[in-house]
Amino acid sequence: MATPRQPTTSTPPWQGRFALLLGLTLGLAIWKFGNPVILDSQFTPPENVADAWSQPWPPRWAIWTLLPTALFCVWLAASGRCRWQSAAALWMLPAGWLAWELVAAGRTVDDTLTTLALTQFAGCLICFFAGVWGVVGEKGLQLLLAGILAAFAFCLVRAANQRLFEYPQDRLALLEGERTGWTNFAPEALAQMRRDRFLILTNGVERVDPVIMKKYEKGRVSGTLIYPNGLAGAVLLLFPAAFSLAWHNTRRLRPPIRAAVIGLTLFLGCGALFWSGSKSGWLIALGVAGLAGLRLDWPARWKWAALALAVAAGLGVFGWRFHRYFAAGATSVGARFDYWRAAVANTREHPWVGSGPGTFQRPYSRLKRPESEMARLAHNDYLEQFTDSGVPGGLLYLAWIAGLLAALAKRVWRGTDPLRLALFLGVAAWFAQGVSEFSLYIPALAWTAFALAGSLLHQPTDLAPVPSPPTG
């Protein structure tokens, strides 16, 4: 891969502080706000310091953590320190999208869900414009990533602990509890399990809900996110940048230390993706690896041979990892098709304003097939915009994301900075995962993705100069 060029622009002190503030705020989101905002009613505020440290916080708190960042953006705009340097459509489209979401909110079928969704979307735009205006130069990127990657590392360590220690120990404890009539559990812990519906009454005997036991048997981990596919989204978004830093910023270390840092990064990132059990995440990661391979400074024959070998190995592991899933009928894929069918049907019924931002569960409860499980979100961020806010809302969001990715690709793909390329690949992978997930509604993921996309949009270009043709 090309050697990174030295930065040629300095970062003003206020921008450095802004980038650090934004990175720490997003790190807090990764740590505490890894759940969809529409699930806010299922979370209670922590009652003590121990709960505040170990438990996720109510999603409705998330928007308040962005208040300093929002005020900073207002100050930047009022002082004339921020200027839009890209195509006007890249600020007009998100502004128009949010405005249409407000229009659609006027005809919502659930005011509470819509309010939560609107605050989430406002947070996305705050982070996007904060990234555009406040993160400039290599130092700005490093300060932004400091808080983000620290929280990401904590998330990955948590995932590894879940897989290697927490889940196996919890499973054994639950099996022992069933065998002994729960005498090995403290009364407070047993009461909490009953409140959380871990236990069901079968023939007069309390047993663990089979769904819970199946979760432990599968061993799919989620780190600090809501569920395993959310963890896969975090890996897709942030692991390319983490690996790029581990590879390029450790060259001055002793070889054993450098090898340990790179090896630990690979173990945590690849292990978390593998243990998450995300099918789409694994396939998207293969695509990202293939795109990154195209940038290798190797002879074409070696490059394509290595890519073919890597893709074949990745697909082989994919087939081995998920063969039982496909043999059982790929139930989650069928469920998603039912969500998408219902989303299209609701869009046809309400083509202009949909059912209201964040309200997919309301029409789905009416449109779903009898055998399908209930879903709160459409598991497709793009279809969700159409069903929730109508065709105008869906088209505005699609146009914004398409235009943003095109602008980033034009600015970053031919550049020489490996960190920016890694960030672009991560952002593109995250938007690709949006075809089958609902990460737009998770502050930890959506806010981070839009902040990184915004920060890349206005980075100084690092394109290598084109040599002049020979004369004479």
Index terms:
472 residues, mainly alpha, two-stranded antiparallel ribbon, 18 helices, disordered N terminus, disordered C terminus
Account of the protein in words:
This protein is mostly helical and 472 residues long. The protein has one domain (18-45, 59-78, 94-457). Helix content is 68%, strand content 2%. The protein contains 18 helices and two strands. The chain has helices at residues 13-32, 49-54, 62-65, 67-79, 89-105, 111-134, 137-180, 187-195, 210-218, 228-248, 255-276, 279-294, 300-327, 331-349, 361-367, 381-412, 418-433, 443-457, and strands spanning 199-202, 205-208. A hairpin with a 2-residue loop joins strand 1 and strand 2. It is globular and about 70 Å long.
Compact summary:
With 472 residues, the chain is mainly alpha-helical. The chain has 18 helices and two strands. Helix 10 runs parallel beside helix 12 (279-294) and helix 17 (418-433) crosses helix 18.
